[in-house]
Specification:
4-stranded antiparallel sheet; mainly beta
């Protein structure tokens, strides 16, 4: 899969935003409110998925956003959900990756223009756990996410986008219980 940009009036041919002719894939992309395309792809190494951004008109080069990874680490989807979310103002991207510890999927925040290393936002309290889904709250101040809890149950957490330690939001669960994947972050609350 590739990402192409073409004027809506057809006045110019399509231009590939990824790396043409490399045989590499883009698995997910989003467009920011500021006209940048943020995408996850294995553009530099086969099956080594990283986060990039580029202006939608290719007026500047692509930028690597995800930084360096541990051996075997890459940008991965949060369970069945997306691997990235763009903040409403288009300035930052939150993404899921096993960046610091292979197979331990956490959340990170990085400027959409690049220029700095991603900031960790948190993940599962278990060393072998992972974030399973995530969403930004309406006010764009927190990321709310489901992750593997200490008792092998899926639990709900929240972390400030300013890199605070995650807080568990879910109440104590009954034996074998889990928090539903179907949650909504609305108006300062999570449903």
């Amino acid at each position: 899969q590739h990402v192409l940009s073409v004027p809506v009036d057809g006045s110019a041919p399509p231009t590939e935003l990824t790396f043409p002719g490399t045989g590499r894939d883009v698995v997910e992309f989003a467009v920011t409110s500021t006209g940048r395309v943020v995408f996850t792809g294995d553009l530099r190494a086969d099956n080594g998925f990283e986060l990039f951004s580029a202006p939608d008109d290719l007026s500047a080069p692509k930028v690597l956003l995800s930084g360096t990874f541990v051996a075997g680490g890459d940008v991965v989807s949060a369970g069945s959900g997306p691997s990235l979310r763009v903040e409403a103002d288009g300035a930052h991207v939150v993404f899921s990756a096993d960046k610091l510890v292979n197979e331990h999927v956490e959340l990170f925040r990085v400027p959409a223009l690049g220029g700095s290393e991603p900031v960790p936002l948190g993940g599962s309290p278990r060393s072998d756990g992972r974030v399973n889904s995530f969403a930004l709250d309406r006010e764009q101040t927190h990321v709310v996410f489901l992750a593997d809890g200490l008792a092998f149950a899926q639990e709900l957490y929240s972390s400030s986008l300013e890199s605070s330690a995650p807080r568990r939001l879910s109440p104590p669960l009954v034996q074998g219980g889990n928090v539903s994947v179907d949650f909504r972050a609305v108006a300062g609350r999570v449903l």
